[in-house]
């Protein structure tokens, strides 16, 4: 019997990363392994302790996950083999039979509390917001509490802990999506309608150099989906650029672009060409 492949995710069980992992993979073929933080998870893949890992890289409301970007740029040589886009729906969770009027304390990760602040103020009379390390930790911590305690989390974590959804979809902004990436040591198989990610650093800091880099994409009708700068961790004012674009790096126009970029950059790192999965 073949040994089951392992996919590490940002735990504990019941996090949104866990939900993305479960929905984007076949659990009969992959064993899901929780990790306490992004750095430990990514280094475990780099050290071949795990086959793959899934981590958040960007949220539509909060922006990029800098820890993920910095590790990919400076610490590891891993490939993105899949992108998973998932809507983030927050729910108010409590004891079975609890009423909204009974809730006096609401626990969750600070981002979840901030993203639900207006709706919480409308549906609850008066409450204390309490920060936790994750939404999953918040829900787990109220498991044995009384009806005065609520938590913000996913349907998955409510089911895991045997708790009830007291109010559905309480996020203030319904356009809340998180982009997750699956990382591995080897590149993804070639697919149609791929997306490619790279990191580069201009060869010289001079006026117009970023324009010259981006011009190489525009000249060949390559659609950029994201560009972001991060400190190069050298001199103050030195930056590297993360660039995402549509297409596979083996396509002729993209190969030409990458060749041209080599002449305008001192450093270029291809993070991968990979398929995208959009969950509902």
Task: Offer a few descriptive terms.
280 residues; alpha/beta; D-Maltodextrin-Binding Protein, domain 2; Alpha-Beta Plaits; 3 domains; 5-stranded mixed beta sheet; 9 helices
Task: Explain the overall architecture.
There is one protein chain. This protein has 280 residues and is an alpha/beta fold. 27% of the residues lie in helices and 35% in strands. Helix 1 (16-24) links the parallel strand 1 and strand 2 (30-35). The mean pLDDT is 93.
Number of helices: 9
- The whole-angstrom Rg is 21 Å
What portion of residues is helical? 25-40%
Low-confidence stretches: none
> In the CATH classification, which architecture of the largest domain applies?
3-Layer(aba) Sandwich
The CATH class of the largest domain turns out to be Alpha Beta
Count of beta strands: 16
Strand residue content = 35-45%
Give the count of structural domains.
3
CATH-derived topology of the largest domain: D-Maltodextrin-Binding Protein, domain 2
Structural class: alpha/beta
- Sheet having the most strands: 7 strands, mixed
Helix and strand succession? EHEHEEHEEEHHEHEHEEEHEEHEE
What value does the average pLDDT take?
93
Distance between the amino and carboxyl termini: 34 Å
**What characteristic shape results from the CA principal axes?**
elongated
Give the CATH H-level superfamily of the largest domain: Periplasmic binding protein-like II
What's the quick description here?
The protein contains 9 helices and 16 strands. The chain is an alpha/beta fold and 280 residues long. It has 3 domains: 5-88 and 177-184, Periplasmic binding protein-like II (D-Maltodextrin-Binding Protein, domain 2, 3-Layer(aba) Sandwich), CATH 3.40.190; 91-167, D-Maltodextrin-Binding Protein, domain 2 (3-Layer(aba) Sandwich), CATH 3.40.190; 195-278, 2-Layer Sandwich (Alpha-Beta Plaits).
């Amino acid at each position: 019997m073949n040994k089951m492949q392992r996919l590490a995710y940002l735990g504990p069980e019941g996090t949104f990363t866990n939900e993305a992992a479960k929905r984007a993979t076949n659990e009969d073929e992959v064993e899901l392994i929780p990790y306490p933080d992004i750095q430990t998870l990514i280094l475990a893949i780099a050290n071949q302790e795990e086959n793959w890992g899934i981590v958040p890289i960007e949220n539509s409301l909060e922006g990029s996950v800098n820890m993920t970007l910095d590790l990919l740029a400076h610490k590891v040589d891993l490939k993105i083999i899949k992108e998973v886009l998932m809507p983030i729906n927050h729910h108010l969770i409590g004891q079975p039979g609890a009423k909204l009027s009974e809730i006096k304390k609401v626990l969750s990760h600070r981002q979840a509390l901030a993203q639900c602040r207006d709706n919480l103020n409308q549906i609850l009379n008066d409450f204390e917001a309490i920060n936790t390390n994750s939404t999953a930790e918040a829900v787990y911590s109220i498991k044995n509490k009384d009806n005065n305690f609520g938590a913000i989390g996913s349907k998955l974590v409510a089911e895991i802990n045997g708790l009830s959804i007291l109010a559905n979809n309480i996020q203030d902004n319904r356009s809340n999506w998180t982009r997750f990436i699956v990382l591995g040591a080897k590149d993804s198989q070639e697919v149609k309608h791929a997306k490619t990610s790279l990191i580069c650093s201009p060869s010289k800091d001079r006026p117009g150099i970023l324009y010259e880099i981006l011009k190489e994409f525009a000249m060949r009708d390559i659609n950029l989906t994201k560009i972001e700068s991060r400190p190069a961790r050298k001199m103050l004012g030195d930056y590297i650029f993360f660039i995402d674009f549509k297409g596979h790096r083996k396509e002729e126009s993209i190969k030409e672009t990458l060749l041209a970029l080599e002449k305008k950059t001192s450093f270029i790192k291809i993070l991968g060409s990979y398929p995208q999965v959009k969950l509902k």
